[in-house]
Amino acid sequence: MSEDALVTREDRANLSVLTMVYRPYNLLGPRLINALVQQIEAAQNAGSRAIVIRSGLRHFSAGADLDIFDKRVAAGSGDQANEERRLNGVEFLRFMELLPVPLIASVHGVCLGGGLELALACDYIIASTSAKIGSVEATLGLHPLLGGIQRQAQRIGAARAKEMSMLGRRYDAPTLEKWGLINLTVPEESLDEATMSVAQEFAQGPTLAHAATKQLVHIAVNEGVAAADEAMARVQAPIWTSEDLKIGLASFRKSGPGLAKFVGR
Question: What is the distance in angstroms between the CA of the first residue and the CA of the last residue of the chain?
Fold first, then answer.
């Protein structure tokens, strides 16, 4: 199987749908991460204004590829240097979080370990009510290795983050929606339709403003509000010369709020 076949891309007008098909369970490791990065970059180069990440298999992702851990144990180190990856784990999550277009994770089946870390790097998580989600690395003698712990803490606080990472349980999606880990749960039969509806809403928005929002959120949660305040003028500068701002102001004056048709520039 070629690397390109691990993730397929379908462009739908101004958004792209990336479907993971890395059998049997979309196990996260260098091969799948490389394929995701390649397809995300291709979607961005194609002009997509939102990107959906979903699974074409029974589960979103059952976790990490354990063969990687066996090699690291044999080497007596957590070193990733010989794994032929374009980006290491933290670099991959930051690549996702700083991508200047919104990323939507559409989750069904199980979403465990590294699969959850992948979802947490997205801007919006929608899950079927039947999905089972958790950080289960503790059952292997590990904990989330890519940065999932700190991203859980950002979303649901320290106590819940420690619970998820230390107890290694699987949670139902509605519980995690109440906690604030995921954004929305819908019946499984409605997942595709609801995902596309949310994705289109993102894709039809002011893309440069969305990019600035992502960047300021990243600065605020990693460096603090004061750092975000200092960065505001620099981060917001592209908005003031954007075509979308001109469109939005003209539409507001003519028809009121909410009717602007942005072009993503």
Answer: 38
Residue 224: give the domain boundaries: 207-255
Q: The domain spanning residue 221 has which CATH number? A: 1.10.12
Backbone angles phi, psi at 90, to 5 degrees: -65, -40
**pTM: predicted TM-score of the whole model, two decimal places:** 0.91
Whether residues 171 and 232 fall in one domain? no
Catalytic residue among 41, 83, 117, 223: 117
Examine the domain organization and report whether 139 and 51 are in the same domain: yes
The answer to whether 97 is a known catalytic residue is no
Q: Which residues in the chain land under pLDDT 50?
A: 1, 3
- Under 8 Å between Cβ of 58 and 27: no
The pLDDT tens digits for 67-116 are: 776 665 655 655 555 556 678 888 999 999 999 999 999 999 999 999 99
> Are 136 and 107 contained in the same domain?
yes
Known active-site residue 117: yes
Kindly name the residue from 3, 91, 97, 137 that is annotated as catalytic.
137
For tokens 């300021």, the residue is: 216
